[in-house]
Amino acid sequence: MDKIPSPLFDEAIKNMLDSLKDEEEMTDKQRRILESAIKIFAEKGFHGSSTSEIARDAEVAEGTIFRHFKTKKDLLYALIAPMMIKFASPLLLKDVQRIIQEDLAADETLHRLYKNRLDIIEANWPRMRIIVQEAWFHPEIMDALIQNITWQGRSLGDSFVRARIESGEFRDLPVHAITRAVFSTLFGYVLFSHMFTSSTESMNTEDDIRLAVDILLNGIRNR
């Protein structure tokens, strides 16, 4: 398997991480500020939110926010940096490596990989939504997302695809093209299920994941 490069962070996020306390060591006020910021940033976006409304929701003075977080953007970094670390941590990547290394058919491997990543996303969706929203407006967040999460995922994905091509299970197409299709299916599923699906629609996760994998591997053309 290809060696996974060390995570790379934009300097601003590095500095933020160095100054952050572990969330378990935060004071009650710090925790309330973060919880309110997650809720309001997710609803209104970074630019559509104000520290005054975050303070009101957290029931603290606005000045209290700036005692703990120098700027509004530092507060944003405090929300997303732990999520990026969690997603790319060696412990979680071991889950991906373990699934890839199991002797399973491609459809079952992809199903387990998707389910593994989706469980993490579901458990952390408010923060993930903020990352998805704000990456388009903050280049340093997009860079960190690509370098810290996407790069490592692509390295593992390329190794998986290359092995399946060599075994004859996948068509002999460019590795990067197949890996891109695998990632696009996962990200598309996440975005559609959270942002474009009516709240009245029933989402059967297991069935939907298996259907997404089936369409990825077999297409939609009636043969």
Automatic annotation (TrEMBL):
Superkingdom of the organism of origin: Bacteria
Keyword annotations from UniProtKB, A to Z: DNA-binding
A single BP term in Gene Ontology: regulation of DNA-templated transcription
The keyword DNA-binding belongs to this UniProt entry's keyword annotation: yes
Pfam families in the record: TetR_N (PF00440)
Any one GO molecular-function label of the UniProt entry: DNA binding
InterPro entries (alphabetical): DNA-bd_HTH_TetR-type_CS, Homeodomain-like_sf, HTH-type_TetR-like_transc_reg, HTH_TetR, Tet_transcr_reg_TetR-rel_C_sf
UniProt-recorded name of the protein: Fatty acid metabolism regulator protein
